[in-house]
């Protein structure tokens, strides 16, 4: 009998702590979990013959969570141990994935207001952060990355942390956003110098720095709107 089969037939409480999804998430962070482990947490319980890890593995069949977008009620009910209640749990995940995808497809940054609506949560952060948003030639959202956390000022941000993801996303445009947790939205001297440096590097590397937005509790400052970029 294979290792997985033995593992999945054991009761969850009989497994070593390092194999338990909840304990692993609490110790190492939710991002450390595999797709099977994430689904197991969402399902909660397994069946009489199979623990929740085995059930999650059986549903995914070696595929990623993204594959659940196309799963149907009929397909789920054919899986031994899946009744209507658990099938609806999985279908709820499927619908969430679809809606997130639809939202990302619609996300278009045609003005600084659009960016601010997307990223205004950053104004509530107590720690300084810089986010890089990547777009295509039509200013449609491709992805975003946190490129710095806890920097005293932007001079500590490494340009490579901005441009390496841009290459990975095959991006055209870059929008930088960072917060002033305790201050005003107005850019500092360092903010202005940093923005000019990134603009020049962007041109050299074939990208376009579309904007640099500073958010604070009172709103935001856009370099593009103020013709400072």
Give a written overview of the molecule.
The protein has 229 residues and is an alpha+beta fold. It folds into two domains: 3-105, no CATH class; 112-222, Cytidine Deaminase, domain 2 (3-Layer(aba) Sandwich), CATH 3.40.140. It has nine helices and five strands; from the N terminus they run αααααααββαβαββ. A five-stranded mixed sheet has the order 2-1-3-4-5, with helices on both faces. Helix 1 (3-9) packs across helix 4. The longest helix is centred in the middle third of the chain and has 23 residues, at 84-106. The radius of gyration is 23 Å and the shape is elongated. The model has no long low-confidence stretch (mean pLDDT 89). It comes from Persephonella atlantica. Keywords: Hydrolase, Metal-binding, Metalloprotease, Protease, Zinc. InterPro entries: MPN (IPR037518), RadC_JAB (IPR025657), UPF0758 (IPR001405), UPF0758_N (IPR046778). Belongs to the UPF0758 family.
Q: Tell me the number of structural domains.
A: 2
> How much helicity do the residues have?
40-55%
Number of strands: 5
Overall pLDDT confidence: 89
CATH superfamily of the largest domain: Cytidine Deaminase, domain 2
Number of helices: 9
- H/E series: HHHHHHHEEHEHEE
Distance between the termini: 64 Å
**What oligomeric state do these chains adopt?**
single chain
Strand residue percentage: 15-25%
Low-confidence parts lasting 5 or more residues at pLDDT below 50? none
Q: Please give the order of strands in the largest beta sheet.
A: 2-1-3-4-5
CA gyration radius, whole angstroms: 23 Å
CATH architecture of the largest domain: 3-Layer(aba) Sandwich
Structural class: alpha+beta
Net shape: elongated
Please write the CATH class name of the largest domain.
Alpha Beta
- Main pleated-sheet profile: 5 strands, mixed
* CATH fold call of the largest domain: Cytidine Deaminase, domain 2
């Amino acid at each position: 009998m294979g290792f997985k089969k033995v593992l999945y037939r054991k009761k969850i409480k009989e497994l070593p702590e390092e194999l338990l999804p909840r304990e692993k998430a609490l110790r190492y962070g939710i991002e450390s979990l595999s797709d099977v482990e994430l689904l197991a947490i969402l399902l909660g319980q397994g069946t009489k013959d199979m623990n929740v890890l085995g059930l999650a593995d059986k549903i995914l069949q070696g595929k990623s969570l993204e594959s659940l977008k196309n799963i149907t009620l009929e397909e789920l009910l054919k899986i031994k141990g899946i009744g209507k209640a658990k099938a609806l749990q999985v279908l709820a995940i499927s619908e969430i994935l679809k809606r997130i995808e639809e939202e990302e497809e619609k996300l278009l940054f045609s003005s600084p207001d659009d960016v601010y609506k997307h990223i205004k949560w950053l104004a509530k952060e107590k720690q300084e952060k810089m986010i890089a948003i990547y777009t295509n030639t039509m200013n449609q959202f491709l992805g975003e990355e946190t490129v710095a956390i806890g920097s005293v000022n932007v001079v500590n941000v490494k340009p490579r942390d901005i441009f390496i993801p841009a290459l990975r996303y095959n991006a055209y445009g870059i929008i930088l956003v960072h917060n002033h947790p305790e201050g005003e939205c107005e850019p500092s001297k360092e903010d202005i110098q940093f923005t000019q440096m990134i603009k020049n590097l962007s041109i050299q590397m074939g990208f376009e720095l579309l904007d640099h937005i500073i958010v604070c509790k009172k709103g935001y400052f856009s370099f593009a709107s103020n013709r400072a970029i």
